[in-house]
Amino acid sequence: xxxxxxxxxxxxxxxxxxxxxxxxxxxxxxxxxxxxxxxxxxxxxxxxxxxxxxxxxxxxxxxxxxxxxxxxxxxxxxxxxxxxxxxxxxxxxxxxxxxxxxxxxxxxxxxxxxxxxxxxxxxxxxxxxxxxxxxxxxxxxxxxxxxxxxxxxxxxxxxxxxxxxxxxxxxxxxxxxxxxxxxxxxxxxxxx
Length: 192
Known about the structure:
Blueprint: E1 3-12, E2 15-25, E3 30-34, H1 41-49, E4 56-60, E5 66-69, H2 81-86, H3 95-104, H4 119-132, E6 137-141, H5 149-162, E7 167-171, H6 175-181, E8 184-187
Parallel strand pairs: 3-7, 3-8, 5-6, 6-7
Antiparallel strand pairs: 1-2, 1-4
């Protein structure tokens, strides 16, 4: 079922962040949301995930189990990469399967705690964690930020390959990312 968003309004105090946003996110498709900073993209994701409540408007068709990559990596710093991913996986997923996903995007040191990783390595762990999560829908908020071009291309290919036939909502500032991901696009303005 497609997700339908109608007339979403959200304010924080006097600041109107979303002013009547409407849109459709197609089931089993990747949809990219683009727009200038401050137009409400992250707020919209937080509303869709149930982290924030809208002031007005309706949402229908929302799957029950979200997975996410936030703007911050939100990893357990003292855990290794496999343990960070395992926390959100379905029971029975083998460590070797998780390791193969991490290794496919260049994470090879699987025993050290992630606090010893670079920012780009942590980002990739967060992406694998979302992809392998036991979820019905994925929300990815600027998932490729902080990655160099070669790594970004590798990780974008990984995301496309591993989200086929899944519903994915991805926030980006990059038209190049939209083109590489071959996704539906929703363009948000200064005020929605």
